[in-house]
């Protein structure tokens, strides 16, 4: 009888110990869970703060874009410091400078830039001469009315809310072209705002994700170049790039026998340039 009572006491004590251990484990898991929650909360707060800073920077750009400029008239405030020249290029054009300018991707990038500038000029200065471009049809933007040109601009910029005006779009594109040709930009250009392309891209990505759409449906210029190379094969693509680099020397046999090689190249580049969409950090 006594032995049975002892065994029962031992069992009761063992159960109490197990319950105590389990309680301690639960408390420890609770503390760990709370710590993880606080860590995630702090991280989310930091990410939100960073996003807010990015959005604030975009808001500053937009706010600066009210037609305030007395000199260049593209919607950016101009003061005495505007004489400063900036020698650091916008990040998005770096792959298309130097030797990169003369690749298939480079020629297409600058054709897209020229096309956007030409459209903008049809709106802001409809009587000015057409922008000279080696690839675009010289009458393509010029044959449009000012209203038609503006409609096309908003197709290009359809999901770029950080670009609220035609003049700002023109200023950004012309600054890139200026840097390509001279190696610097004027200090009062909105393109001097470092990271503007990345900020616009982030806002566009966020909008796509919010609507459940896939950005991968749109090719970057580099991806398009690789696609064309795969379709043509290395040898034919090499001939295409040589023809693009020196269109005046392109022969019929370089691409398709019996067909004007210059016409093929111009049609290809022109069609691609007229159908791109701006993603902030480059065309797609």
UniProtKB/TrEMBL annotation:
Superkingdom of the organism of origin: Eukaryota
Protein name, entry field: Uncharacterized protein
Lineage: Eukaryota, Fungi, Dikarya, Ascomycota, Pezizomycotina
């Amino acid at each position: 009888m006594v032995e049975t009572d002892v065994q029962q006491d031992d069992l009761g004590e063992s159960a109490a110990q197990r319950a105590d251990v389990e309680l301690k484990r639960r408390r420890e898991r609770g503390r760990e869970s709370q710590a993880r929650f606080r860590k995630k909360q702090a991280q989310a707060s930091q990410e939100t703060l960073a996003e807010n800073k990015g959005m604030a920077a975009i808001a500053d750009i937009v706010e600066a874009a009210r037609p305030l400029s007395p000199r260049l008239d593209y919607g950016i405030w101009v003061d005495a410091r505007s004489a400063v020249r900036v020698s650091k290029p916008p990040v998005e054009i770096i792959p298309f400078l130097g030797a990169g300018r003369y690749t298939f991707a480079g020629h297409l990038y600058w054709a897209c830039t020229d096309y956007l500038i030409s459209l903008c000029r049809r709106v802001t200065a409809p009587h000015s001469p057409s922008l000279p471009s080696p690839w675009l049809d010289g009458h393509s933007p010029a044959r449009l009315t000012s209203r038609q040109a503006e409609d096309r601009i908003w197709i290009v910029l359809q999901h770029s809310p950080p670009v609220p005006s035609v003049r700002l779009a023109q200023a950004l594109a012309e600054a890139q072209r200026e840097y390509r040709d001279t190696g610097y930009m004027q200090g009062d250009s909105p393109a001097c705002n470092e990271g503007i392309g990345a900020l616009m891209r982030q806002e566009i990505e966020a909008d796509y994700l919010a609507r459940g759409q896939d950005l991968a449906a749109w090719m970057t210029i580099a991806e398009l170049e690789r696609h064309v190379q795969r379709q043509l094969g290395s040898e034919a693509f090499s001939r295409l790039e040589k023809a693009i680099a020196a269109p005046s020397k392109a022969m019929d046999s370089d691409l398709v026998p019996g067909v004007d090689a210059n016409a093929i190249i111009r049609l290809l580049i022109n069609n691609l340039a007229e159908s791109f969409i701006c993603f902030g950090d480059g065309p797609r």
